[in-house]
Serine protease (Cellulomonas soli), 250 residues
Amino acid sequence: MRSSGRRLRCVASLALLGSLTGCAALDALPAMPSPVPTSVVPSTVPQPTPTSSGNLSPDGFDLAQRITVRIRNVGCGSLSTGTGFAIDEHTLVTNRHVVADSAELQLSTYDGRDVAVSAASTAALADLAIVRTVDALPASPELAADDPAEGDPVTIVGYPLGGQLTLTSGTVVGSTTDPLNENLGDVLVTDAPVEPGNSGSAALDADGRVIGVVYAKSSDGFSYVVPVSTLRAMLGDETSFSPSTSCTTG
């Protein structure tokens, strides 16, 4: 990673960003709409849109929407939500803690399509995981060639609290030794807001390229990101990931 010239002290309190959600909240459905008058020709149904524009171009915004996947981890007596993003047609990246101890992983795309999972694997070094899918994912982004520098813009795309797809913007404010996995080395720190459920979100640069993977936040609102250099290195090493253990098998 290029030197940022600024290192941050780790704050005392960190939070992983998996979101625990009640089943009732996930299954709630809106009321049925009124009947369409027979004299009206219906228009095309609009696609859902994120709640803010971030700092991406219109094309980058559309790609950011299509690469992002909501993950529901149905565990043995628990349910949590997180986020992932495609890196090719049948592979997505997320956090290890998003997929850990699951009985079933349920994926859905930005347009509400369910995607079947074929396998999941987790990394021992960093809070990263790979999920393979049976069904094709809508789109995949470019991974940035280098880590960002201090002051570079960043947009985080994900499903906070397991709800609506959102984009939040900020800047890279520095780097620090990973406060959760000290053997990993340096991670990025940004001031882009994140919430529980953003775990596994892609952090994008101004051109819509992936610069890292969100995995935690501090008590004073900073977000922690595994840098793209680490992601690239681990994706290039087949020994970095091992099959995820189900809560049903221990």
Summary: Confidence is low (pLDDT under 50) at residues 1-5, 7-13, 20-48, 55-61. The longest strand covers residues 166-177. The domain at 63-139 is CATH 2.40.10.10 (Thrombin, subunit H).
